[in-house]
Design goal:
CATH class of the largest domain: Alpha Beta
Structural class: alpha/beta
Number of helices: 23
CATH architecture of the largest domain: 3-Layer(aba) Sandwich
Shape: globular
Number of domains: 3
Number of strands: 26
Distance between the termini: 60 Å
Bound molecules: iron/sulfur cluster
Strand order of the largest sheet: 5-4-16-15-14-6-7
CATH topology of the largest domain: Rossmann fold
């Protein structure tokens, strides 16, 4: 029997593999044997007919892709990289990569190619949380663990649909509810998560800052501030208190769309709760003010001292299996490595560690900037920017202009593959090994369960082949992912707070390692004066406005059984009864106005493009809002490409659209 871990979402459930069968690991603390429909079907994702199994190449997008050898493909890539200015090269990575893959890519690009243009698709889901954590705590750190919900009295879920996106964690929330946990859900949709809530608040899209500011204001006004904690651990309290004195509560409440009674009902539960966790995902992060939304929520915990205590804290829920590991390694272009930035001292330390003098001192391009940066070479690994970046018509126009697009993927049916000049087949989950960090800092190990398909390779090996061809053999001569992990562990000693060096690679699938426990027990913050920062933020109403022509707000999100665009999960229906890939939730009032019926195909139109979708009439969505899941591959023809100014994360959840009946 082999123990491994699920490679779909940030929960990171333990799995057991025996006699060609996969099941949940009963002794694994997070899931105790339970897995969701995605986890249980991981093996099918290896066997899907949509696997990419051979390297392919073509001169131009007008040509057909032809099978080539690895030698030729790597040769061509190395020549292209050698003859291109480093600032014209970009590496676009993914939260699907294992930590060792991330490490090698980061070392190659930042350490040896001399550019910091290496970023990850986590930019589009978690970067607002990363920036907010750094602003508030001094480092990108999640101070809560999933097990804390059993110690909490109240769980607030803001813009987070755990029932669909973090299924096994959601089951644990239900268990905790049976033991007395109260749940409040803030969401413009009455999601499956909201259905188990003690109180559901149908917040207007884009008003989260107003809501959490109202909470902070009341904490101050009703003397619920933890003065001792603030005195010892928090900056800017007086400033925030004075600012809130001048902010009119009525205006903020109006913007939330909630009634006074609804807010008071919330407040009654909130003020009497001793231990509170506030968890969030894309509803807050994917916004033109994503960082501010995070900060508004974090403020409530710093004011009340409800952080670094069991059952308390602000809890950012990561979506992808190793989004967190990527952040730790340095997979974002705005960090160098192991949570270090581009200050002189950090560059010196990392240069010595990697034995290089090539590190550039300015942040690189983010994933959301790469396509418009007139790059000459773009390497895209295990992700599908043509599908997932906002404003897809523009994305398609831009990617066509990049002379060399290299796609490294385990699957052959991404939308990006239509724009690739070279495609390299990567080993998927189950055909490779390596580590990942889940949403609460637990480092686990994916094990190799079956032989690697004949012409596929783990990502780190692919990056290493490129590095060796470029002449960097001394720095890239790893023989296993274990060797890479051990070098990464050594590197974490350069950081002020990472303790990954205490983990033992060989034990990780049996004994996961949780990093950062000391930070919590010592209540440490990592700003200059070692205190956390409060930030006064306001809703600047910067998202796209609705109009007579585009009167509805489109929000997007996951569905339970599907993984992103469905490359892994859109399996034959005979095998699995998965939820539909495509539907458009519409309030009955709007459906009536347009004489729409369930399952009718409609056009959804924004100023940027239009798509077709299938009507799902439901009371569960506000009248001013519609919802289309991200498993509809066309949804980003509609979305706007406004970015948060600090995190550069897109505003996916606030696009103005209209609906048209077809043949009307
Ligand atoms: Fe996998 Fe996430 Fe489902 Fe657990 S909840 S089985 S980690 S997809």
């Amino acid at each position: 029997m082999i123990k491994s871990v699920c490679g779909y979402c940030g929960v990171g459930c333990g799995l057991e593999f025996e006699e060609d069968k996969l099941r949940g690991d009963v002794v694994y603390p997070i899931n105790e044997g339970k897995v969701c429909s995605k986890g249980v079907s991981e093996l099918l994702s290896i066997q899907t007919p949509t696997r990419l199994l051979r390297p392919h190449i073509r001169e131009s997008l007008h040509d057909e892709l032809k099978i080539t050898s690895w030698d030729n493909a790597i040769d061509v890539i190395a020549k292209k990289i050698k003859t291109t200015n480093s600032d014209k090269i970009g590496f676009y990575l993914s939260g699907q990569l294992l930590t060792e893959d991330y490490y090698i890519a980061n070392k190659l690009v930042k350490g040896f190619l001399g550019t910091n243009n290496v970023d990850t698709n986590s930019r589009t889901c978690m970067s607002s949380a990363v920036v907010a954590h750094k602003k508030a705590f001094g480092i990108d750190f999640v101070p809560v663990r999933m097990e804390d919900i059993f110690k909490a009295n109240l769980l607030i879920l803001a813009g987070a649909n755990t029932a669909e996106a973090h299924v096994v964690f959601h089951n644990n929330i239900k268990k905790a509810k049976k033991k007395g946990l109260k749940i409040i859900v803030l969401d413009p949709r009455l999601t499956d998560t909201a259905k188990i809530a003690d109180l559901y608040l149908p917040l207007k899209v884009g008003s989260d800052i107003d809501f959490f500011n109202l909470v902070s204001k009341r904490i101050i006004e009703e003397n619920l501030v933890d003065e001792k904690f603030i005195e010892e651990n928090v900056n800017n309290y007086e400033l925030l208190r004075n600012k809130f004195k001048r902010v009119p509560a009525t205006k903020m409440l109006k913007r939330t769309g909630l009634s006074k009674e609804q807010f008071e009902e919330f407040w009654e539960i909130y003020k009497d709760s001793e231990n509170i966790i506030s968890a969030w995902t894309m509803g807050l992060n994917q916004s033109v003010q994503g960082v501010d939304k995070n900060l508004a929520l974090i403020n409530t915990h710093l004011l009340s001292g409800k952080i670094y205590k069991e059952g308390n804290g602000p809890f950012s829920l990561t979506g992808q299996p190793n989004a967190m590991g990527g952040r730790e390694v340095g997979g974002l272009s705005t960090m160098l490595a192991v949570h270090m930035g581009f200050e002189k001292e950090s560059i010196k330390k990392v240069s010595q560690f990697w034995d290089t003098n090539k590190i550039d001192n300015k942040p690189g391009l983010t994933a959301t900037q790469m396509l418009s940066a007139k790059l000459d070479v773009l390497v895209i690994c295990h992700t599908d920017p043509v599908y997932h970046l906002p404003n897809r018509n523009k994305v398609e126009r831009l990617i066509k202009k990049i002379p060399t697009v290299i796609e490294i993927n385990a699957y052959d049916n991404s939308e990006t593959s239509n724009f690739a000049h070279i495609k390299l087949p990567a080993a998927p989950w189950g055909e490779k090994e390596g580590t990942q960090t889940n949403l609460d800092r637990t480092i686990t190990k994916q094990e190799k369960l079956t032989r690697t398909s004949i012409d596929c390779k783990p990502d780190w090996e692919i990056f290493q082949l490129i590095a060796q061809k470029l002449g960097f053999k001394d720095a890239f001569n790893f023989e296993s992912s274990k060797e890479i992990f051990q070098e990464y562990q050594e590197m974490t000693k350069l950081s002020s707070h990472m303790d990954m060096h205490k983990a033992n690679y060989d034990d990780l699938s049996n004994e996961p390692f949780v990093w950062g426990k000391d930070i919590v027990s010592k209540k440490e913050f990592f700003t200059k004066n070692k205190k956390a920062n409060l930030h006064f933020v306001q809703n600047k109403l910067m998202s796209e406005k609705t109009s007579l022509k585009y009167p509805l707000i489109l929000v997007t999100g996951r569905t339970r059984d599907q993984w992103h665009s469905g490359t892994k999960t859109n399996l034959p229906k005979t095998l699995l009864k998965f939820k539909d890939l495509d539907f458009c939730e519409i309030n009955p009032t709007n459906a009536k106005k347009l004489a729409l019926e369930n399952d009718e195909i409609i056009k959804v139109i924004s100023i940027r493009g239009e798509i077709k979708s299938k009507v799902l009439i439901t009371e569960n969505i506000r009248e001013d809002t519609i919802f289309i899941p991200v498993s509809n591959r066309d949804v980003n023809y509609l979305t706007n490409d406004l970015l948060d100014k600090d995190s550069l994360q897109p505003d996916y959840n606030h696009s103005a659209v209209r609906i048209e009946k077809i043949n009307s």
